Amino acid sequence: MGEDLRARKMTRFKTRSSSFLTWLTGCAAVTMAAGACDLRPAPGFARGELIFDTCAPCHGNDGAGDETLAAPALAGAMDTYLTAQLERFQAGVRGYHYQDTEGLRMRPMSRALITGEGDVESIVEYLMSLPIVDPDATLDTGDAEAGEEDYTLLCASCHGIDGRGVDNVPDAPSLLHLNDWYIASSLRKYRDGVRGASPGDASGTTMRNPMASGWTDERIDDVTAYIMTLQRLPRRIPGPPPEPLPPVDVDPSILPAGVTVAMVQEGQDIFNTATGICYTCHLREGAGGALAPNLTDEVWLNIDGEYESIVLVITNGVPEPVEHPGFMAQRAGMPLTDEQVRAVAAYVYTLSR
């Protein structure tokens, strides 16, 4: 352990020790008769601050991260993203790959430090109170002008044209106030299957296929350089969630043999949620975007639009799209059953009819 790291740990320890001992004494006095003391504040800011004492040696007292420890900045991140990542580390959805050194370190830390009800919410509440620190750029490679083209075409649909995220894709976080080395290393991990290949990681699957798959190091550096030009914007406050989708209203007489209205309804739920993640490229209700075609018109680019053809293309994917840059993985890269595939196909079939 280096001298700087020891000094940082001791600084936080000395700062907190007096108040913690005062609280501990009070806790013991109040609960001695009951024979129990939780030894922690109630869920909320104080508990989050206490938990963060153990995070600060790596992530910094100000949450600005530490490249030498490969610990990213946390101050300035979206609360929804922080919550989701902590839960994924705890569940083993992230930090599972033998080449993910940082993730393998973080996964047991998340399980050891965040053990009680309300702990995740508490640490996130504390992190959201930290002043935003925009980390300085440390990478001297990358062409921001070249990266802008890739970002606008491939990234903006989910992360926003300004990098601050968009409300209708809640799993795609803001990219602002992050370390450039962390952005670049994350993209490489997605590309190489070190991150985003775990079953159940819907947003990770989207980032791996089709976003980062096949990207060269140069392309990753270019996009990273462009993202760093956006860093000084304030933290985005997410808007309300989108309105619930209406129940499917379809004439049963137009449905192919063996397809039911219940299948269409199930397909709608899978298509527009993290179960199938179809909406991340085709957008909500199949409206289409920069990454994938509109499914509500009568134009079919890769197939003839008949039901069995839709089933087949979802099953096999679209490795080489005719027009759009985002290729589709088999079963959208998700563990969809044959029945779920047929349900999604039923829903897609009705969108243009």
Q: Could you say how many structural domains there are in total?
A: 3
CATH topology (fold) name of the largest domain: Cytochrome Bc1 Complex, Chain D, domain 2
Following the backbone from N to C, one meets helices and strands in this order, namely: HHHHHHHHHHHHH
Q: What is the overall silhouette?
A: globular
How many distinct beta strands? Answer: 0
Largest sheet: none
Mean pLDDT: 83
The CATH superfamily of the largest domain is known as Cytochrome c-like domain
Radius of gyration: 23 Å
Distance between the termini: 65 Å
Helix content: 40-55%
> What is the CATH C-level name of the largest domain?
Mainly Alpha
Gross CATH architecture of the largest domain: Orthogonal Bundle
Number of alpha- plus pi-helical segments: 13
Helix-strand category: mainly alpha
Please mark out the parts with pLDDT under 50 across 5 or more consecutive residues, or reply none. 12-36
DSSP strand (E) fraction? Answer: under 5%
